[in-house]
Amino acid sequence: MNIIADENMPNAEALFSHLGQVTLVNGRTLTSALVKNADVLLVRSVTKVTEELLAGSAVKFVGSATIGVDHIDLPYLAKASIAFTSAPGCNAEAVADYVFSGLSHLYMTKKQSWLTKKIGIVGYGNVGKTVYQRFAGLGCDVCVYDPFKEMEQSDPNRNAIDDNVRFVGLDDVLACGVICLHAPLTASGDYPTQNMISEQALALIAPGTIIVSAGRGGIIDEPALIERHRQLNGNLHLVMDVWKGEPSINKDLLHIADIATPHIAGYSKQGREKGTLMVYQGLCQYLSKLNSGLSLDKEAVLGETFLSKGWLSHINIQNYGCFEEVLARGIQAVYDVARDDARLRFKYRENTADSTFDWLRKHYVERDEFNTCTVSTDDIKADRLFEAVSFSTDSLHDSLVNHKK
Length: 405
Known about the structure:
single chain, alpha/beta, Rossmann fold, 14 strands, D-isomer_2-hydroxyacid_DH, EC 1.1.1.290, protein dimerization activity, PdxB_dimer_sf, Erythronate-4-phosphate dehydrogenase
């Protein structure tokens, strides 16, 4: 079996090599000639999987180690009887970590408090739901714009999503102090998201608003966003991970963004490993249906290996400012998004070519997820804050109480 895999899929050779010959390729420059003799194609979001790419090839299975599928021509795969699997939810924790690291950065550098602000989320898929749950766990006032999920919630013939989720219109989300964008990019249908955050929508955004864009580029009208930033005299705080026209990025938007990163919000070590593992599991299920006697690596199928532990396993926090600062310092100890911002700006000072964007992704300095780290505090409220954003806790205050007894 010939397997073509994106070189940025961690553990691809270790997981798939017992199934066939694995060839690692640059996903951005993948061509029909390279996949012509492949039986299995494994990609990430930078590869557009279309009829043009696959026509005349031997490919019978496509796997995408990502949560989104807007880069996959699903109707063509169905027509060509090509099996498909993806990795929904694999990087939800990582993207949520990115959101809270961005907010922590704004607090520590600009004293932009967000815990008491109203939070608006666009998109309630795996990522949006994870982000929502964290904000809700922190006690924030959260609302969501996702007309499809709202319809599901109100449909008596379907399982309710979550009765506690407050779905609202887009205008209500745009009135929030923090706006998190996690919708897929769509150009058609009843609710297309392309340029959804338009000039008219941006006019509703108040001074001091924080926008975190970590879904797909093209959802925001970037020239209109730059103009709105100018109208507000810079009092609009931008955490930008995705860009229209990637790998090309809008240099004018880069200059005004508080945080600018090369589409790496989901690039935690564990998130990327989960993506590869989920695609492997999908391929194993496909092969098992074709050959019931196929012998598979059960350890890998069950996910008992191939997921890394974190480098920083434990943090002890005892000195307090306000709780927002405590949370920010704990978050930044595991992942400070300013690192990725600084690296992007440094590389773009050297070279503004489109290849720089992909170089940063390919040579990303991997980070761990918050859930790989345990926090010890001597305050119950601090514990609850860290737990809400997915840290484990090992409370010092419990041992102090027991010691006093």
